[in-house]
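Reply to dn_fold:

You asked what the input looked like. This is it:
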Amino acid sequence: MEENKNEGYDSTKKNTDNTAENIEKEAKNTANEFKEGWNQATNSGDNKKLIAGILAIVLGSLGIHKFILGYNKEGIILLVASLIGYATSCLGVGVFILMATGIVGLIEGIIYLTKSDEEFYNMYQAGEKPWF
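and this is what came back:
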């Protein structure tokens, strides 16, 4: 009589393990692709350009667009100037300060949005040009 050498061996276990390994690898690959796509979308110059440009036009006097680009000192300057303008607007001088900070934001927003992606990145992100 022949002995059964495969006794105690479950042939479906190996297939299940391979399937689980394949699913795990595929999940890791998908997660890595998602992560790379997310990093590319959130770190690209185009996104900062669009966000900074719109915020400069809408809320330019508050300097929020400067903070988005990483220019904290310039953002604080605009924010403090606009707060002083609001506080002294009843004296008449504050109105001019508010107008000036608003015009700076408007001009910068238009400049940001009219530059090409490459020009914007080279000038405002890599070149670190804080004003205009």
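Residues 46 and 117 are 6 Å apart (CA to CA).
Hope that clears it up.
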